[in-house]
Design a protein that fits this description.
The complex is a heterodimer of chains A (397) and B (596).
Chain A lengths: L22 H9 L3 H11 L11 H10 L6 E6 L8 H8 L1 H15 L3 E6 L7 H18 L4 E6 L9 H8 L23 E5 H13 L1 H5 L2 E2 L2 E2 L1 E8 L5 E6 L4 H8 L4 E6 L5 E4 L7 E2 L9 E2 L4 E6 L4 H15 L5 H18 L7 H15 L3 H16 L1 H5 L1
Parallel strand pairs in A: 1-2, 1-4, 2-3, 7-13, 11-12
Antiparallel strand pairs in A: 5-6, 7-8, 9-10, 9-13
Chain B lengths: L3 E6 L2 E6 L4 H7 L23 E4 L6 E2 L10 E3 L3 H17 L14 H8 L18 E2 L5 E4 L8 H9 L6 E3 L6 E3 L16 H5 L5 E3 L3 H9 L4 E6 L7 H4 L9 H11 L3 E4 H24 L10 E2 L4 H10 L13 H17 L6 E7 L3 H6 L14 E4 H10 L21 H4 L6 H15 L19 E7 L14 E8 L1 H13 L6 E5 L17 H16 L10 H11 L5 H7 L10
Helix pairs in contact in B: 9-11, 9-15
Classes of the chains: A alpha/beta (397), B alpha/beta (596).
Chain lengths: 397, 596
């Protein structure tokens, strides 16, 4: 699926998809080292969650390992539902053993005997191949003497189940609704037990770190955004597809490489991410620099390119229709807020509400950001405010 | 001793136990944080977000109901940011909510309305979402109405139905803008596993769930000069009605209630406590008969433990969920229905009024009683035994409409016949009360002596605990009951259907054996019923409970079998407990129902 680019400006990395079939060796080697050593390796690598939120992976493992509970779980989050993201599907298709190895290593360190792949319902077609892969992998674990088993759990198609606590609720047979936090899954996860939930790509990267060491990973990227990242490139680009690139690039570099020469904006991080207009291309980098400043943007991998033929009103309308339907409906700011935003921009467009109503909606998104129960409701403000603030005239005329 | 945590709220230092939430810590400082989805009876949901507060160092606001306190936390509950967000959230809720406050059943009792007033939501800039919603209103059930257009999706009803009642008749369906509180395949509450207990109503903050009102029908009957309208009042009503009419919690208003009912124009004001006493005679005898069959006749068919059948929510629950235990249910009708059957037979004959000209009304703390009165088998008098059932709240509505200054009324006495009740009848309104009343009578029948508890107060059966047990050793029996000599009578009492579920599972597994179990569907028993005033929590239930026991202590007769009207009705009409006539009028049968 990787498309060969015509012009090569950005450094293409080939760590994830390089199909080296050596997971038995890597695991055997890792098993000979102490848990502490491996955790340090993960922490030192600077790897952050690739689902988009960017929580330090080593720290997550460490926190869960510290719990004295006997029963613990590792869950691979393969509910890839962010609009414009399709990289986890590729990883699970092409290098599933890397993901499984990451899970096994995590299980060993935290002390889990059971792991699950929470697979997006729409990815059901992956199940037969994954099961084959699981059988092979379980044989390897038996050979290495590691008491760990992985099962596949099929989701039912709700976007919210990608949120880790909603995912856990769903696995417990309940409605997929986010929990109150704290407590976090590292303390109270699946069946109330300490649980690590990692994105597919995060687990695959942990394999790379085990194989090549933290340094090689850390040498890639910048400051707090280390390593490479798999991007799902879509929209107005001559070369859509999956690309593994070094973190820390500017949007300008990205557009120069992937745009069609008429790029007006890039949506970084899918519907829940930010829209970067042309005037900010050079000033914005892609990475996980902690607090959101607008200078560095995190992403689960979705990069949507829009050229000048695109109506940003339509783009926003499309995102809001998505959120209005995919909010779990539990908390007020998200459930009602999304409906108000969608109806609101339509009303402004039709002239039923004054243009100043957009400012009221911006204030509403601020409330949603501050008060929504989970990341879904909190992040609707990202696309809304970045689109409305940068393309206000398109919202009105 | 748990560890204490120090924090500040609005700059004031406070020290609370470590497992407390910010909301609870604020209460210590007498700082009120508004809530909607929060309810003391229920697990924390944290979904309405109205209780958000600012935590210094956290950019986002936190839900105070769901956030545990932490050492050194600095909380601000009343900043500009907090107020603006809360206002937004209330405004958002109002856009999904059909605003017809003046036409709403909960007008004046609505938590959303109160909050809207508190935050001065005077102009609404956001778009009204109601016209596009296709909200449905379910009015098919004889007991409960559900109006989705009033729902704020706080899920208090859902948690109530699942956690307190273990019924799960209502649940969340769909997501996003379509998210709603629904039933199995969105059927009417009349067609699903709903027990009509009404706990969802007393836990609902708005007018989304209400009882089906029969106030107008009763006014119509009262206005008809050709109709003889009689009314019976359940024990728990007299300790709840005062709350609704501005008197303090747990005020006993029996005399004022009778006085008000007479002013409303009822031709005869009678007491369900009378048939509570009658229930004891019938049910007590039924229990002793079952024990004889088990102990003397070695009859393998006899179903023990025998379970009480006074609570129609419990009866419907067992019909749906444990039909295999239907033989264990006492065949006695509830006091309401015994009263109804006698009203149009015994009473009618006594006052010389044709039964077809009698309308029999009952005032109940309960919504399931509305369903019970409508059960097809409840026509043993040849007519509908109980015509209309009003809740405590509905009676308060009538009293207000009639312009009666309730708190100024003098006490009056019930009419007769069927107007005398014992203290044992009065405590039927509390969990453990039926058990206590039954033991007071049964023990005395069997031994010729009073129950061996000081002042007849069987303390172990009292209180709000989920499952209570009492074992009474029967000694010194009179001749007719010699077979019970030395028997340890094992009894259990539960309140709330989740507790009933737990008890039945224990019995099913064979872990415990009981002879007699008392089950009331609502927490605290009838005094915490679905027809009682808003709001409710355990403190309020305790106040009502104390009042009921006070009522018992203050009555001249405290044992059902000593009620002179009970003696009279057996002499003049029923002959003896479990007689042919009793069976026809006072006993009933049950049906197996589906699980959805």
């Amino acid at each position: 699926m990787t498309t060969t680019a015509t012009k090569k400006q950005l450094h293409r990395i080939d760590l994830i998809f390089n199909n080296d079939d050596d997971c038995k060796e890597i695991l055997r080697n890792a098993l000979s080292r102490s848990d502490q050593e491996i955790v340090n390796e993960m922490v030192n690598s600077g790897l952050k969650g690739r689902g988009g939120a960017g929580f330090p992976t080593g720290l997550k493992w460490k926190l869960t390992a510290e719990s004295k509970e006997k029963e613990k779980y590792v869950i691979c989050n393969a509910d890839e539902g962010e609009p414009g993201t399709f990289k986890d599907r590729e990883i699970l298709t092409r290098v599933p053993h890397k993901v499984l190895s990451g899970m096994a290593m995590c299980a060993k360190i935290i002390g889990a005997q059971k792991g699950y792949i929470y697979l997006r319902g729409e990815y059901k077609f992956l199940v037969p191949d994954l099961k084959k892969e699981l059988r092979k992998f379980h044989d390897i674990l038996d050979e290495l003497g590691l008491d760990f088993r992985v099962e596949i759990f099929l989701g039912s198609g709700a976007y919210i189940c990608g949120e880790e606590s909603a995912l856990i609720e769903s696995m417990e047979g309940k409605r997929g609704e986010p929990r109150n936090k704290p407590p976090f899954p590292s303390v109270n996860g699946f069946k109330g037990k300490p649980t690590v939930v990692n994105n597919v790509e995060t687990l695959a990267h942990s394999y790379t770190i085990l194989k090549f060491g933290a340094k090689k990973f850390r040498d890639l990227g910048v400051k707090d955004s280390r390593g490479s990242k798999v991007f799902s490139v879509s929209g107005d680009t001559p070369i859509p597809g999956i690309y593994e690139l070094e973190l820390g690039m500017t949007v300008q570099d990205f557009v120069d490489d992937f745009g069609d020469g008429d790029c007006k904006a890039v949506q970084v991080g899918g519907a829940s991410g930010f829209l970067v207009p042309r005037k900010r291309f050079a000033k914005t980098t892609i990475g996980y620099e902690g607090k959101l400043t607008g200078i560095s943007l995190p992403t689960g991998g979705s990069m949507m390119i829009f050229n000048s033929s695109r109506s940003m009103y339509n783009v926003l309308n499309n995102y809001l229709e998505f959120f209005e339907e995919e909010s779990c409906g539990q908390c007020t700011p998200c459930r009602v807020g999304c409906q108000q935003l969608l109806k609101g921009i339509k009303a402004v467009k039709r002239g039923e509400k004054p243009t100043s109503y957009l400012d009221q909606l911006l204030k509403l998104t601020e409330t949603m950001k501050l008060t929504a129960k989970c990341g879904l409701g909190q992040s609707v403000a990202n696309s809304f405010s970045s689109i409305v603030e940068n393309f206000r005239e398109e919202m009105i005329y | 001793m748990s560890n204490m945590v120090n924090l500040t709220i609005n700059g004031i230092a406070v020290s609370v136990e470590e497992n407390k939430t910010i909301l609870e810590a604020a209460k210590h400082l007498h700082i009120k944080i508004p809530t909607l989805c929060y309810h003391k009876d229920l697990c924390v949901a944290g979904n309405c977000r109205v209780c958000v507060v600012e935590q210094v160092g956290n950019h986002k606001l936190v839900a105070s109901c769901a956030t545990p306190v932490a050492e050194g936390m600095e909380i601000n509950t009343n900043t500009l940011k907090v107020r603006n967000c809360r206002k937004h959230i209330i405004e958002l809720l109002l856009t999904e909510h059909r605003e017809e406050c003046t036409k709403c059943y909960r007008n004046g009792h609505c938590e959303l309305q109160a909050l809207s007033a508190e935050y001065q939501i005077t102009n609404q800039d956001f778009i009204d979402l109601v016209p596009d919603k296709n909200y449905t209103v379910d009015r098919l059930s004889p007991a409960i109405e559900k109006d989705d257009s009033k729902c704020i999706r706080c899920q208090r009803c859902v948690r109530t139905c699942a956690e307190i009642q273990s019924v799960g008749a209502i649940a969340v369906a769909h997501k996003g803008s379509e998210m709603k509180i629904s039933t199995f395949f969105d059927r009417s509450l009349d067609e699903v596993v709903c027990t009509n207990c009404g706990q969802c109503i007393v836990h609902c903050p708005t007018g989304a769930l209400t009882e089906k009102s029969y106030v107008e029908k009763v006014w119509d009957a009262l206005a008809d000069p050709d109709i003889h309208v009689i009314v019976q009042t359940a024990p728990a009503v007299r300790v709840g009605l005062g709350e609704e009419l501005g008197l303090g919690l747990g005020t006993r208003v029996t005399g004022k209630m009778v006085s008000a009912l007479k002013r409303l124009g009822f031709d005869s004001v009678l007491d369900t406590n009378f048939t509570a006493d009658l229930t004891i005679m019938e049910e007590g005898t039924e229990l002793l008969t079952r024990l004889k069959r088990a102990l003397v006749d070695d009859d393998p068919e006899v179903a023990l433990p025998m379970a009480t059948s006074c609570s129609p929510g419990w009866v419907k629950y067992i019909e749906h969920k444990y039909p295999e235990y239907l033989p264990n249910l006492s065949t006695c009708k509830s006091p309401q229905q015994m009263f109804g059957a006698l009203a149009k037979t015994y009473y009618a004959k006594n006052v010389n009024v044709a039964p077809e000209n009698i309308i029999s009304v009952s005032i109940m703390p309960c919504t399931a009683k509305k369903f019970e009165a409508n059960r097809p088998e409840m026509k043993d008098s040849g007519y509908k035994d109980v015509d209309f059932v009003l809740t405590t709240r509905e009676l308060a509505v009538m009293i207000r409409q009639a312009g009666i200054e309730f708190e100024k009324l003098n006490d009056e006495s019930f009419d007769s016949i069927m107007g005398v009740g014992s203290g044992a009848g009065a405590i039927f309104g509390a969990t453990g009360g039926v058990m206590e009343a039954a033991l007071r009578t049964a023990y005395e029948i069997v031994t010729g002596r009073e129950v061996p508890f000081e002042n007849l107060e069987i303390i172990p059966v009292r209180g709000l605990e989920g499952v209570k047990e009492v074992t009474i050793k029967i000694e010194g029996t009179v001749e007719a009951w010699n077979f019970l000599e030395g028997v340890e009578l094992k009894c259990a009492i539960t309140n709330g259907l989740e507790n009933a579920h737990q008890l039945l599972e224990v019995i099913k597994k064979g872990d415990k054996f009981y002879h007699f179990i008392e089950i009331m569907a609502c927490p605290g028993g009838c005094l915490g019923g679905g027809g009682q005033p808003f709001p409710v929590d355990n403190e309020i239930r305790m106040q009502r409970m104390n009042a009921l026991y006070e009522e018992d202590r203050n009555l001249p007769i405290r044992k059902s079998h000593e009620n002179p009207e009970i003696v009279q009705i057996y002499k003049e009409f029923l002959d003896e407990p479990l007689s042919h006539k009793s069976h026809k009028l006072l006993h009933t049968s049950y049906v197996k129902r589906e699980q959805y």
